[in-house]
Amino acid sequence: YSHKWRGMVRAGEENVSRGQFRVHPAQKPVALMDWVLKQCRLAPDTPVLDPYMGSGTTGIAAARLGLPFIGFEISPTHFERACDRLHTELQALPLFADNKEQ
Fold first, then answer.
1. What are the CB-based long-range contacts (under 8 Å, 24+) for 88-91?
2. What band does 17 get if pLDDT is binned at 50, 70 and 90?
3. Mean pLDDT calculated for residue range 9-22
4. CA 74/CA 45 separation, integer angstroms
5. What mean pLDDT is predicted for residues 76-90?
6. Residue-wise pLDDT tens digits, 23-48
């Protein structure tokens, strides 16, 4: 995975295009977590567990791949922000999946 990422300077920060900005100091790009999940070659319906949910980036990547997600976060503020991001993402996903990529 190749990505320009020097702390705050990132290439293709997709969240800004959806009207969202960084909500966590260690927030990862969704594209990175998408790549990681694809490398795992998970069977369909395999739950993705993130015990340090942070901003919910892994959950967003899981949702885009149609995988169930379970996330834990100790910080109530970060948990709420992650839930908001996941809720927004789930509303933006198409109702019916297009299986042309698979």
1. 88/18, 88/20, 89/59, 89/60, 89/63, 89/64, 90/63
2. very low
3. 52
4. 26
5. 93
6. 777 778 888 899 999 999 999 999 99
| pTM exceeds cut of 0.85 | no
Cα radius of gyration (the chain): 14
Q: Is 37 left (phi over 0), alpha (psi -120 to 50) or beta?
A: alpha
Give the count of beta carbons closer than 10 Å to the beta carbon of residue 20.
16
Phi-psi region of 45 (alpha: psi -120 to 50; beta: other; left: phi over 0): left
For 6, half-sphere exposure in the C-beta direction (CA atoms, 13 angstrom radius) is 2
Tokens of 102: 């698979």
Three-state secondary structure string covering 13-54: CHHHHCCCCCCCCCCCCHHHHHHHHHHHCCCCCCCEEECCCC
Given a contact cutoff of 8 angstroms between Cβ atoms, the answer to whether 66 and 42 are in contact is: no
Q: How far is CA 45 from CA 14, 66, 87, in A?
A: 26, 7, 19
